[in-house]
Design brief:
By secondary structure, this protein is α+β, with helices and mostly antiparallel strands. It has two domains: 5-66, no CATH class; 68-153, Kinase associated domain 1, KA1 (TATA-Binding Protein), CATH 3.30.310.80. Helix content is 55%, strand content 18%. It contains six helices and five strands; from the N terminus they run H-H-H-E-H-E-E-H-E-E-H. It has helices spanning 5-33, 40-43, 48-66, 79-92, 112-117, 139-153, and strands at 68-73, 95-100, 104-109, 124-127, 133-138. A five-stranded antiparallel beta sheet has the order 1-5-4-3-2. The radius of gyration is 21 Å and the shape is elongated. The two termini are 38 Å apart.
Length: 158
């Protein structure tokens, strides 16, 4: 998979906002429950705001690099023979086909709320141009779908 700098920058901005909101929520809740005015100097150790800002920035810069991946799924058949089983795995997980090309299929979650919680980074791209299949997307989803696809296409003898 080729590194897409534009997509990386977009993810950095999204996670910068996400981590900033996550850090701000406890501060706001503490400020509201303590009946004091919202002042960072009373809630935090003086001088720690720059360190917190650097930590948020570091997480936002690193997480898109480690949170997204590609994984190979080895099959014994060509994609067309297992298409129903593979698409069934996504359908059963409430994913729908968002885009289809000659060699790829992009799946997205059908729930808008779930997509919002994942900051619209829920797309799983299945590249079937050759064997093995290549899944790309968020690491947790790619790993989960790779296992589910492997299980679904494995022929079981009894």
């Amino acid at each position: 998979m080729k590194f897409d700098f534009k997509k990386y920058i977009l993810r950095v901005v999204k996670y910068l906002i996400y981590f900033a909101v996550l850090m701000a929520i406890p501060l706001v809740v503490f400020s509201i429950t303590s009946n004091q005015s919202f002042d960072l100097n009373t809630l935090l150790v003086p001088g720690s705001t720059s360190r917190i800002t650097l930590i948020i920035l570091a997480f936002a810069l690193v997480y898109p690099l480690i949170g997204f991946t590609s994984q190979k799924v080895y099959t014994n058949n060509v994609f067309e023979q297992d298409r129903e089983k593979i698409e069934g795995v996504f359908t059963n997980s409430r994913y729908i086909i968002a885009n289809r090309t000659e060699t790829t299929v992009t799946f997205r979650h059908s729930s808008s709320f779930s997509r919002l919680l994942n900051m619209y980074e829920d797309a799983i791209v299945l590249d079937f141009s050759e064997n093995p299949l290549i899944l790309s997307g968020a690491r947790k989803n790619v790993t989960r779908f790779a296992r589910m696809i492997t299980y679904a296409i494995t022929e079981r003898t009894e």
